[in-house]
């Protein structure tokens, strides 16, 4: 039993998209621009030449926030979306009826339809490929060349993520919606 | 009395294919028959394409997962709830003037919700799975679960009420009617809650839709009452029918005025203060032609007709009701589309070269065919009902 989360040292991100590729490869995600579990958000440079704000250009790697109070889980009519024993928000494809309510309810645009099963799919923190084998890593975290991502158990005070969150300031996305996200952006 | 005996005592006319085809061959009837057959054919073709291609036959996307079929489903279930309210005026609340429309309105509420279910069955990706896991692992925090479950119950009560109305048993019709009405109102406000609970969609989030749905259901029910009566009496209304429709028109005038008041304040509160994700969406909605179609067809035209004649011009109200129903369709379409207008701003460049200001959507031909097919199904079931049952003698009902 753990409570997995991820801290993102997002200012280190170089937008190489190795994480997107690793996720697709490891989890067998279909090709296509709208079929993705994770992505790198790009904030464009602000201002006009030569007064460009270099500091404004930022990359925000993102994915399902594995919220502790996930709107997608609340709205699911068949409980196909559930929290597993590690606090990871999962979808049971056998129960998913593809009503698409969760896609609409997720504030993070983190869900899409898997055309093979015609059910909703999303990031699982590599539960099937890694966590189930006892590896506390994810494909995106493992492949990142600049080590943007720190993955671990938030309930373990000695985990790297717990230490980082004690030592550094961070923010979370759209937390004013009461979602209690478990992706932390380090400042 | 056994169930079998009970069923055999329900007054039903014998209907053959021949009797179904035996209608007065005037131009309006023939046009309607052609439209119904064409719409049914479209439904069959649309469902066929859906069965072959699944959701790929629809123009729904990751950014706009709910499309025309959701809007059409809402259109039908709002119609059903509205007809249930109109039907209840007589047999549940005991207003004698409205008694004669009860049976027709309740039957209308059954066929409209069945048409809605037919449309949603091909929108939900796995309807059979839904029926199984709605029961085995119910999501009690989900407005969709409550809405679907309560609508199922509502349909059951509507059928029971209709059967007792057919049997002139007003006592049991009233019990089933009041239960069905309450369950229907609960279901319908939950449908509003499906949108109202969306924290992520600021434009829809809040108490507005659950209450607005009940108001617009009543308005829709009155529009449909005019349309059903207009066709039944070929606009040559009986004295009692004229009295009933005049009263309904006056109620409609009040309801549309309240609706205009509601929508005005919704827009004002959305825009005022420039709240992100709400104010700019509301301004965008104000600039969309479908919003003005909704306002002009469902609000301005009917209200103008009602105010001009003090509600007494019932023939004009028939035409205004046709305009009103087209407006109500746009109202449902706008509700669904406007909820999803604003991208969720996660700055994804893999999906867009340039981040879109607004999410675009236009229904596919399959979605349009299934939607028109739903209307065809509704009209076809209603026509069969007029042949199978005597929907006219409500005013002759007496206490059972």
Radius of gyration of chain B, whole Å: 22 Å
Order of helices and strands of chain A: EHEEHEEHEEHEHEE
Shape of chain B: globular
Distance between the termini of chain A: 29 Å
Query: Mean of the pLDDT scores of chain B?
Result: 91
Give the biggest sheet of chain A.
4 strands, mixed
What does this structure look like?
The complex is a heterodimer of chains A (187) and B (400). In chain A, 18% of the residues lie in helices and 21% in strands. Chain A has a 4-stranded mixed beta sheet. In chain A, strands 2-3 form a two-stranded antiparallel ribbon. In chain A, strands 4-5 form a two-stranded antiparallel ribbon. Chain A is globular. Chain A has 5 helices and 10 strands. With 400 residues, chain B is mainly alpha-helical. Chain B has a single domain (3-390), classed as Up-down Bundle (Formate dehydrogenase/DMSO reductase fold). Chain B is built from 14 helices and no strands. Chain B has helices at 3-8, 17-21, 27-53, 68-91, 99-121, 127-136, 143-166, 170-196, 208-233, 239-271, 279-286, 289-309, 314-339, 365-388. In chain B, helix 4 (68-91) crosses helix 9 (208-233). Chain B is globular. The model of chain B is unreliable at 394-400 (pLDDT under 50). Classes of the chains: A alpha+beta (187), B mainly alpha (400). At the A-B interface, strand 2, helix 2 and helix 3 of A face helix 6 and helix 7 of B.
Features:
heterodimer; A: 187 residues; alpha+beta; Alpha-Beta Plaits; two-stranded antiparallel ribbon; 21% strand; B: 400 residues; mainly alpha; Formate dehydrogenase/DMSO reductase fold; 14 helices; 71% helix; disordered C terminus
Explain the layout of strands and helices:
The complex is a heterodimer of chains A (187) and B (400).
Chain A: E1 4-8, H1 18-27, E2 38-43, E3 58-63, H2 71-75, E4 81-83, E5 89-91, H3 101-105, E6 112-114, E7 119-121, H4 139-143, E8 149-153, H5 160-167, E9 170-171, E10 183-186
Parallel strand pairs in A: 1-10
Antiparallel strand pairs in A: 1-8, 2-3, 4-5, 6-7, 9-10
Chain B: H1 3-8, H2 17-21, H3 27-53, H4 68-91, H5 99-121, H6 127-136, H7 143-166, H8 170-196, H9 208-233, H10 239-271, H11 279-286, H12 289-309, H13 314-339, H14 365-388
Helix pairs in contact in B: 3-14, 4-5, 4-8, 4-9, 4-13, 5-7, 5-14, 7-8, 8-9, 9-10, 9-13, 10-11, 10-12, 12-13
């Amino acid at each position: 039993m753990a409570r997995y989360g991820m801290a993102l040292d997002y200012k280190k991100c170089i937008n190489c998209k190795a994480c997107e590729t690793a996720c697709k490869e490891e989890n067998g995600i279909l090709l296509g621009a709208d079929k993705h579990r994770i992505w790198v958000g790009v904030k464009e440079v602000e201002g006009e030449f030569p007064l460009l704000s270099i500091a404004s250009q930022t990359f925000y790697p993102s994915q399902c926030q594995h919220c502790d109070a996930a709107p997608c889980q609340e709205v699911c009519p068949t409980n196909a979306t559930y929290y597993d024993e590690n606090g990871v928000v999962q979808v049971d494809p056998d129960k998913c009826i593809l009503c698409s309510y969760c896609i609409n309810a997720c504030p993070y645009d983190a869900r899409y339809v898997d055309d093979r099963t015609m059910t909703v799919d999303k990031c699982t923190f590599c539960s099937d490929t890694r966590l189930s084998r006892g590896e506390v890593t994810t494909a995106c975290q493992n492949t990142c060349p600049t080590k943007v991502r720190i993955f671990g158990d938030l309930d373990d005070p000695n985990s790297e993520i717990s230490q980082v969150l004690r030592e550094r300031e961070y923010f979370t996305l759209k937390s004013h919606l009461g979602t209690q996200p478990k992706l932390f952006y380090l400042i | 009395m056994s169930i079998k005996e009970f069923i055999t005592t329900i007054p039903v006319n014998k209907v053959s294919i021949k009797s179904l085809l035996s209608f007065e061959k005037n131009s309006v009837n023939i046009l309607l028959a052609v439209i119904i057959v064409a719409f049914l054919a479209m439904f069959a073709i649309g469902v066929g394409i859906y069965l072959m291609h699944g959701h790929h036959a629809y123009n729904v996307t990751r950014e706009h997962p709910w499309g025309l079929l959701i809007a059409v489903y809402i259109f039908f279930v709002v119609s059903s709830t509205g007809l249930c309210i109109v039907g209840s005026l007589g047999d549940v609340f005991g207003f004698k003037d409205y008694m004669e429309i009860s049976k027709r309105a309740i039957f209308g509420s059954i066929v409209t919700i069945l048409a809605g279910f037919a449309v949603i069955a091909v929108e939900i990706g796995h309807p059979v799975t839904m029926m199984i896991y709605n029961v085995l692992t119910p999501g009690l925090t989900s407005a969709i679960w409550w809405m679907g479950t309560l609508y199922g119950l509502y349909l059951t009560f509507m059928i029971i009420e209709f059967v007792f109305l057919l049997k002139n048993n007003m006592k049991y019709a009233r019990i089933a009617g009041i239960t069905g009405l309450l369950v229907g109102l609960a279901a319908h406000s939950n449908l509003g809650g499906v949108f109202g609970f969306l924290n992520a969609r600021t434009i829809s989030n809040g108490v507005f839709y659950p209450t607005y749905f009940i108001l617009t259901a009543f308005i829709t029910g009155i529009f449909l009452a005019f349309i059903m009566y207009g066709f039944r009496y070929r606009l040559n209304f009986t004295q009692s029918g004229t009295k009933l429709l005049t009263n309904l028109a006056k109620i409609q005038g009040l309801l549309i005025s309240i609706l205009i008041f509601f929508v005005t304040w919704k827009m004002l509160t959305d825009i005022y203060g420039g709240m992100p994700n709400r104010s700019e969406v509301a301004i965008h909605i104000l600039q969309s032609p479908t919003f003005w179609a909704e306002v002009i067809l469902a609000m301005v035209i009917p209200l103008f007709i009602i105010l001009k004649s003090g509600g007494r011009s019932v023939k004009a109200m028939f035409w205004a009701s046709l305009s009103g129903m087209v407006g109500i369709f746009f109202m449902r379409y706008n509700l669904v589309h406007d909820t999803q207008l604003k991208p969720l701003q996660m700055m994804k460049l893999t999906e867009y070269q340039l981040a879109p200001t607004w999410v675009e959507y236009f229904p596919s031909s399959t979605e349009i065919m299934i939607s028109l097919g739903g209307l065809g199904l509704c009209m076809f079931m209603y026509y069969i009902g007029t042949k199978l049952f005597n929907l006219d003698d409500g005013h002759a009902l007496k206490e059972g």
